[in-house]
Design goal:
about 90 residues, about 65% helix
Length: about 90
């Protein structure tokens, strides 16, 4: 959790879109885990709310998401593909 807080603290300070892109590219070369945490929030979480929520839901959550007042995450699974395959025939 501390690494997520550090990532968010840095990202909250960036406002200029060109600087955000440049910073993301540089950080991607330095620390892939930092850029992945920011990507999950900025892209996957935000765009999922936008694409799958109603316009009213997105209006409600847009500012808290953009201001990092809520931190997004997601979980993904595929049937029969994980480290815990109870009941799977081998």
């Amino acid at each position: 959790m501390a690494s997520v807080r550090r990532s968010v603290a840095v990202r909250k300070q960036l406002r200029d879109p060109a600087f955000v892109r440049m910073f993301g590219e540089l950080m991607g070369k330095y620390d892939r885990s930092f850029t992945m945490r920011i990507y999950v929030h900025d892209i996957l979480f935000n765009e999922t709310i936008w694409a799958q929520g109603t316009s009213e839901q997105y209006k409600q959550w847009e500012e808290p998401i953009k201001n990092y007042n809520v931190i997004g995450c997601f979980a993904m699974t595929e049937m029969g593909h994980s480290s815990f395959l109870r009941g799977t025939a081998h």
